Amino acid sequence: MPRRIIVPGKVNKDATISLKGELFSALRKREPFPGEIITVQDASGKAFRGRIVELKDDQARVFIFEEMTGPAESPFDLLLFQALPEKERMELIIQKATELGVKGIVPFKSKHSISLEERQASQPKAHRWQQIALKAAKQCRRASMPDVLPYCSFEQALDLARPLESKIILWEKEGTRLASLIRDMPPPRSIAVMVGPEGGWAEEEIQQARQEGFCSAGLGGRVLRTETAAIAACAILQYEWDGL
Q: Is 19 exposed, middle or buried (0-12, 13-18, 19+ CB in 10 A)?
């Protein structure tokens, strides 16, 4: 299913467009309702705001009323691989990472993190994760909604990251800072950033990640909470590579 609504050809302000086929499938993924304001793009990459004036079972009509001042999506695909945190922190990470333009979020079990089973026993909310991403995407006027992938093991997370062009794992013991590491790197087509749990990485996990092509990077002298590290890393990557 397409991730965003990209209208072939040129979109004009004060015009009404029809969304059918794949475009309508992309719209339905956002759980639309009549009167809702959405973001669409044209073939040149320009982003527009439009109001749904008609919504049927197989198509929709959208009145375009505003051209946005900049692109609604990043020029590269950023995937956040997040060791599952305790309490409400995963919900916060999903919300803020969505606002910062990630394409996907992969929750996983590391050696020192809580398991989904343990978390669900006290806070059964994993079923809400995709809905949190949807609400955040609508709030920040994104043209697409990130996917929250199924919870997996550390090894499975490494497998999912393998096809991506660049890969970075945050490690509090690494002296090279993230901003310095990427400053002279050209923007990749896709990048994985992997964030560990409150208890930190096991040494063997860092070695496994490096064997899979990950570069390790730190975020400075202060030890950050896992949710702060995830948000900071996404913001740094987007800022350095013109994704904000």
A: buried
Which residue intervals of 15-153 are DSSP H helices? 21-28, 89-99, 116-122, 129-139
DSSP 8-state code for residue 188: P
| Residue linked to tokens 């950023």 | 78
Q: What is the pLDDT of residue 71?
A: 78
61-78: average pLDDT? 91
Cα distances (angstroms) measured from residue 86 to each of 116, 180, 183: 9, 30, 33
- Domains in the chain, please, with CATH? 6-67 (2.40.240.20), 77-240 (3.40.1280.10)
Nearest to 102 by CA among 110, 94, 112: 94
Distance of CA 156 to the CA centre of its chain: 18
pLDDT at 2 over 60: no
What is the C-alpha radius of gyration for the chain, rounded to an integer number of angstroms?
19
At residue 159 the predicted structure's pLDDT band, cuts being 50, 70 and 90, is very high
Q: How distant is the alpha carbon of residue 58 from its chain centre? A: 28
Burial class of residue 58, CB neighbours in 10 A (0-12, 13-18, 19+): exposed
